[in-house]
Amino acid sequence: MKRLTHWIDGKAHESVSTKTAPVYNPATGAVSAEVPFATAQDLDAALHSARSAADSWGQSSLSHRTEVLFAFRHLLHERRDDLASIITAEHGKVHADALGEISRGLENVEYACGLGTHLQGAFSSQVSTGVDVYSLRQPVGVVAGITPFNFPVMVPLWMMANAIACGNAFILKPSEKDPSAALFIAELLREANLPAGVFTVLQGDADTVGRLLEDPLVDAVSFVGSTPIARSIYERGTKAGKRVQALGGAKNHMLVLPDADLRIAADAAVSAAYGSAGERCMAVSVVVAVGGVADRLVPEIASRMDALAIGPGTDPKNEMGPLITGEHRDRVAGYVAGAAEQGATVIVDGRDQIFDGDEANGFFLGVSLIDDVKPGMSCYEDEIFGPVLSVIRVDTYEEAVTLINANTYGNGVAIFTRDGGAARRFTNEVRCGMVGVNVPIPVPVASFSFGGWKDSLFGDAHMYGPEGVSFYTRGKVVTTRWPDPATSEVDLGFPKTR
Fold first, then answer.
1. Which of 221, 321, 383, 426 shows the smallest number of beta carbons within 10 Å?
2. What's the pTM value of the predicted model, to 2 decimals?
């Protein structure tokens, strides 16, 4: 069986660890590899390599860093099909979806290539007699990125592109469920001539994460995952004196007003709820239908669901692949069963879909649509992270906004309407970090920043974009005075303002 490696000091690093985890092909249920979890010796080697590399990389010229990032961007684009195949093999998402993930990651690499502009400071001349002041941004040092299984390329690129551009060394702890994409990225970075130690891949589990959170050689931590773990990461990391950004879970609502184009809204709901098998933190999981519009909208959504092609991601005709593990599939299916028991109406039950052949052993689940959902039901309160869409019926716009704002999560939200005034009012009133107007998944482009409110984000900084640059750097302000060489007067007081 294939045994994966770490990536330490610019090369593959074999581990002697006996603590391993299986890596599955979710489409067949077969084990494709095993991943070793880092030993104390592996961790020490990774941390010291990164610390040494950070000191020199942080002093490298912006032109050199830009050259490396442009080379990496070119290689990533050139090898995107190979990387997408790795994603499909270990995550299960269809090839087209995997390519889309890489494209969104590439946006952030391209943004990072403009580091000469992003790292510019400010200068004020003659703020006092003979005194000038300027600001600059410097790298924080060693940054650890802890990333989830659902985007094994995009989320690491959200973090490491800016972190490396800003002059930091970056240690990636990928999900043990689909770890191979991280090693492929490491190979591309080496080919792009990134110095050894600047990028590290450390395979591991919760013990590995705990060491990264506590070790003094790590200066900052970025995390994306579920809310309970995000909260724990933030609390443990900040207690250890580290800078931490921890993005948590979501329960994204899609508000549909009676005047909306229902064909567009139904198309959006299906693609946003069931794309990537619903395993994304920006998936729409709740449609909030206002004023009786559900009577027309629910049949429109249901009529589109039968046409969805579900199967292995390697088949181009398929639009949705399996879930990541058998355990997760069963957990998602349990929410559908629970919704019926709690009084909701299951319009389409994904558990009824039969998969044959090799797919029978894979982690497949059909798509589900649940109507008449109420707050308090498990299918509404919990982040399901699977192909299940709930519909809540409300009478008024005000009731809808109150419902959305009362939810513990505040990641993404969307409104579908033809009324510009209603949309403008909604964007101002809703308590959420990312808002879409007739856009179901409002993930910002790379020049903005990604992140939610409430229990969807712990820490002050959102991911990538300008806030990413700010997170991966420290500000410094320098005040200078150069005495006129014609005088030898010494003044030990404060600078004079006139």
1. 383
2. 0.95
